[in-house]
Structures are given as structure tokens and as C-alpha cells.
Known about the structure:
Blueprint: H1 2-19, E1 30-32, H2 46-58, E2 67-69, E3 81-86, H3 94-105, E4 109-114, H4 119-129, E5 136-137, E6 167-173, E7 176-183, H5 187-191, H6 202-221
Parallel strand pairs: 1-2, 1-3, 3-4, 4-7
Antiparallel strand pairs: 5-6, 6-7
Amino acid sequence: MKRHILGLCLFCIVAATSAQGQNDGALTIARLKYGGGGDWYSNPTSLPNLLRELKTRLNLQTTVEEAVVSPSDPALFSYPLLYMNGHGTVLFSNQDVRQLQTYFERGGFLWADDNYGMDQSFRREIAKIFPNTPLVEIPYDHPVFSIYYPFEQGLPKIHEHDGGPPHLLGIFHEGRLVILYTFNTDIGDGLESEGVHPEDSPQVRESAMKMAVNIVLYALSN
Length: 222
């Protein structure tokens, strides 16, 4: 029953995006093209694979490809869900910061996924947007861990980098979670097509996809 109700809720959400002129109601995810020289375009097969699985698993109408948008682009407000990842430096201009602040105030959501290397600059740049609101650890009982697939032990570990457990961090603005940050796990790598990362077992790739589905559903229903 929970999944049926959730499906109805998401149908309403996806229909609402049609009013914004977004692909006749088809859900898409917008990749954030940030400055600073970091490879914002990394993991090129991850979002198309995620969009396909959202359609297959949940019967959602989705686009085939992701969208790409810069922080200062007026089109930013057409997308309820942004995704960013990479290995290198993130840099937001003053104009980027102002527009992203407005984007979050209007209900936007960002999923940031560290692909090993963007952590330090990401934290610095996000602090420009929310100078008085730090990233906090998301507890295991948060709905993002159970909205569709259960993750009783929290965020899955996809790739090993510096060691230690994975972390799901977030920023709340006026009581609403507006940024989710997957750190020390590399969910995006696990979403890539089979063979891109041959060390990823089918079980690991499935756990990455399930967690990504949860994040998208949470983002669109809150």
C-alpha cells in the first residue's frame, strides 16, 4: 500500500513539472555544471541508467538523458532535482551563490555525490550558500533510508577511497532537507553501466541503484 500511495504522489509531482514546461511532464534530473575546473561531467552513464530504472521499477515517465544546467542559468528553476559530482575543484561565483540560494528557497533540491576529490571545495562553496547552516549527519531512521528500499544500516559503501564508513550528510533550510551529500561511497560510480567499473559486483551496483532511487523519491516528495 505504501508503494501505491507513493506512486500516486509522484504522479502528481511529475505532472507539476509539466506546468514548468519540462518535457511534457517527463521527469528528468539536471546535472549541475559548476565552475572551478572539476569534472562535473564524470560518470556519464550514471544518470541515464538511473532515469531508465526509475521508469522500469516505478513506471514513471522519464527522459532518456539527463539535463545539464549551470548554477546561474535561469533554466535552473525548471528542475526540482539537481545532481552534482566529480573529482576536482568546485567553485561558485557570487551570481551562482545568489541564484542557488533562491533556488533552494523556492523548493529546489541538490544531491551532491563526491566522486573522490571534490569534498574540500564542495564544503567550502556550500558554506557560501548557507553560511550559518552546517552539513549534518543524516540518521539511519530518516525516511530517505526507507522511502522505497530499506537501508537499515544506512548508506551503502560502493568504492573504497580513504577508508572509513560512508556518510550521508545534509543541510536543512527552514526545516526542509534541501541538500543531500553522499560522501566516501561513490554512489554515482555504482550507477554506471556494467563493465565501466569491473570491480563492482552486481550486488554492489544494485545497492547503489536502490539508494539512488530512494534519494530521488525523497527529493521529489518533500
